[in-house]
Design goal:
- By secondary structure, this protein is an alpha/beta fold.
- The protein has a domain of 197 residues: NAD(P)-binding Rossmann-like Domain (Rossmann fold), CATH 3.40.50.720.
- It has twelve helices and twelve strands.
- The strands form three sheets. The protein has a seven-stranded parallel β-sheet with strand order 3-2-1-4-5-6-10, sandwiched between helices. The protein has a three-stranded mixed β-sheet with strand order 7-9-11. It has a two-stranded parallel sheet with strand order 8-12.
- Helix 1 crosses helix 7, helix 2 packs across helix 4 and helix 6 packs parallel to helix 8.
- The N and C termini lie far apart (54 Å).
- It binds nicotinamide-adenine-dinucleotide and thymidine-5'-diphosphate.
- Thymidine-5'-diphosphate binds next to helix 6 and strand 8.
Amino acid sequence: MRVLVTGGAGFIGSHFAKRLVAGGDDVVVLDKLTYAGNPANLDGTGIELVIGDIADGEAVARAGAGCDAIVNFAAETHVDRSILGPTEFVHTDVLGTMTLLEWARTTGARYVQVSTDEVYGDLEAGGRAVEGDPLRPSSPYSAAKAGGDLQVLAYVRTYGVNASITRGANTYGPNQYPEKLVPLFVTNAFEGEPLPVYGDGQQVREWLHAEDHCAGVELVLREGAPGEIYNVGGEDHANLEVTHRILELTGADPGLVRHVEDRAGHDRRYAIDDTKLRGLGWSPEHSFGETGLRETVEWYRANRDWWEPIKSGDYRRYYEEQYAGRLQG
Ligand code: NAD
Ligand code: TYD
């Protein structure tokens, strides 16, 4: 199969592109190379990279020529950045998704939309979200992702596009841009910089290894049904617990932990039920608590040449805007 992997120069998309190639598929990546896109994530793979915007129909047609399927990882993905400025999120996550769906509609290609558990909003009262639950996104990021999901479902119903949706949990692993919780705290710990915990740190996320996330998406690509949604779950941990484990694994000074002003609209707890995907034969191979986080910390320890150059230039400007006031307050 020849597969167009959009966002394949980013964190999860690059794991996915490499996974498909290792399994014998032919892959072309379409990526705009935003701040989060990094061609080095595909180094040594020989995977063809087309630089372009998923919201540009011509670029999509050029990259997609001859492809049987498209898996859409391309997105603006960081909640904190969406709070600073939502426009790019709507452009890519909604308009970009629609542009890709138009291409799938014209060509008859199979389509998988990589979405997120954040579209369900937070589940303070307990329980776990199932695929048919209402969407209650809280942030401009999750609202844009929910908009993309709704476009997918509309294209299935109205035009008969052969599309499915995955909704993955918080993902961690090698090659994650150091702005999300795990890679930010791990690299800050190595540098002796503060670890800024939002609010009381008792927010709960499900932690899913990138390889397990990709295995779920691949299974849905091959065996998912049109119009169906599949949750891809992880392991529940509170942020403060993750923070303390990172301190242990890096050997950093516990005095680096700072409780700072909370994120606006911060979701307390995400929790999803992934029984449906397990019914297709998926189960995770990495345990966050036992091996997954440890191996990820070791990857960042061994690959400073990957993340040190990122943490300069534009990254520093973003970091100042996001954290300087909080860390002084
Ligand atoms: P990432 O931010 O690391 O990478 C996103 C990639 O998309 C980058 O390479 C970027 O250059 C590219 N991109 C952005 N806008 C584009 C555009 N308009 N056209 C073409 N390329 C564009 O993201 P990630 O963490 O790897 O997430 C991948 C997907 O998985 C996203 O759709 C995200 O919503 C979803 N997801 C992520 C997580 C997580 O915890 N990281 C969890 C669940 C779902
Ligand atoms: P993040 O990695 O941004 O993922 P998401 O918001 O998509 O779940 O954040 C994970 C959790 O960590 C979330 O509850 C916010 C919290 N967090 C902090 O406490 N401090 C930080 O500096 C960051 C980036 C996140």
